[in-house]
Amino acid sequence: MSKGAPMGKGIKAKPKDLKGTMKRLLGYMKASRWLILLVAVVAIVGTLFQVLSPKILGNATTLIFAGVNAKTGIDFTKLAMILLTVALLYIGKAVADFVQQWLMTVVSQNTTKTMRNELKAKINELPSEYFDKHSNGNLMSIAINDMDNIATMLQQSLTQLLSSIILVIGVIWLMLTISWKLTLVAALIIPFSLLVMKLLTPKAQENVKKYLQVQGHLNGQIEEAYNGHTVIKSFNYEERSAQQFHAFNQKMYEAGWKSKFFGGSMMPAMIFLKNVVYVVICTVGAVEVAAGAILIGNLQAFLQYSSQFSQPVSQLSQIWSGILSIVASAERVFEVLDEEERNVYEQTFPNTPEDSAKVRFDHVQFGYGEELLMNDFSLAVAPQETIAIVGHTGAGKTTLVHLLQRFYDISGGSIKIDGIDSRNLSHQQLHQKIGMVLQETWLFSGTIYDNIKYGKPDATKEEVYAAAKAAFVDDFVRKLPDGYDTILNEETNNISQGQRQLITIARAFLANPEILILDEATSNVDTRTEMLIQKAMKQLLVGRTSFVVAHRLSTIYDADKIVVMDHGDVVESGNHQELLEADGVYSDIYNSQFLAEAA
User: Fold this and answer.
1) Is 342 part of a structural domain of the chain?
2) Cβ atoms within 10 Å, residue 147
3) What's the pLDDT tens digit per position in 147-171?
4) Terminal Cα distance for the chain, rounded
5) For residue 384, how far is the Cα from the chain centroid?
6) CA 247 to CA 253: how far, in whole Å?
């Protein structure tokens, strides 16, 4: 591999068929292999109880029939012992079934717990490009719906599969001890069952997969509509939003009923075959009894065995439908797990320890696609220097700070912090150096105190309160009924937008990073709150290297250096007065804002 070439971690071939997917899924069950072995043992014991019952019960019928024919009377003591034995076998079978279900529940939940942990870890390692192309609703559907489906179907289908295989083997063995002719008749159900499955399985599999895919899209549409309900109402988009929902819902309905129809049609077809074979067995068996080739009790036992034999064969369609559902969900999970992770570089890039710049962009090239947005971007930022980044929309301001944090990897050049190439640092090491306040605030459901402490989990109460005071959060929080214990709801709409932004700023200050990024941090606040933030920044940005991205030029007049970007490149740089006198792009932006405010 060439120097510095990225290497994806943990990349595996995507499952392309049922066999490959099931093999990979079974690999997650290795940790529970001893429990699965115990399940198999319990299943064998339970099946042994089940298959012995008809033969012993048939002895009771033969005993009664013989006593009546011989006119010697029925031996009720022997009959009672036979019936007691059968009752104990039935109880043993019930206990075995309970233990088997309990063990398989543990196995299925352990398996999906491992998969869910791996999926969560994988999502944390995915690059930003992945989330640009996939909806949150679909990812949530994979993490919740598909995982639950795998757990449920593993428990049901694998339990049935194990029991059915053991039952069929045991029943065939005992049927052969009674009559090989009747056994051949009973086996007629097998080729016809396989034919039914071959005809219906492809359609069922296709529609199960389509159903899960549409379910993910529907979840995404619902989430977007819920989060953007204010915008939807503002633009009278309710009807079109409802039409989009109905379109996805209709596709989900069509795929759903087809998958259930083709999958569910297998069972009635199997039951029909079972009944036909049962009639044939009764006819042939009656002839055999009349000829004295079979005892009547054995015929009764064989009829029960034929039902037991046809039951797992009939359930095979249900088991197969469950396996197809498992595979469809597993493929969706594996598609995420197989996505290429954030680049890990095999070789170290050149460092320049003697570099006096805190941050240096050196001939950086970058593009979201094939076309480059930045062709040859260079910028040196001194320690404790405040750099303001301005420019028209699409100039590359936000892209610049995203590259600094390695949300995206550069195509050429280098970005160095203290002379160390950022690609030589792990993402954890890099983000410990950088704090960021986004234009869109993000607060989780919890107390205000916990949201601030998120910036430094081991912070003391005094540190949290100090950061809150410095960011002017303390003043409005103490006026709330519950103070710092105020619970923020899911939408955090129980406090104002400006207050939410101040909390995120307090969080960043508590983290005390070496480099601080404010990406349009004041764009969503009122003038008074903006003044508070500016006042706080003067004391809190002391000793830090900071990048301030802003549309409001009033927030960056005091910056050490103002960098003006256009089409991904630096076109001007200097302080506020110098750039105004240059009468260039910055002057144009300033004058347009001044005229707009004056108007």
Assistant:
1) no
2) 21
3) 988 888 888 877 778 778 888 888 8
4) 60
5) 41
6) 10
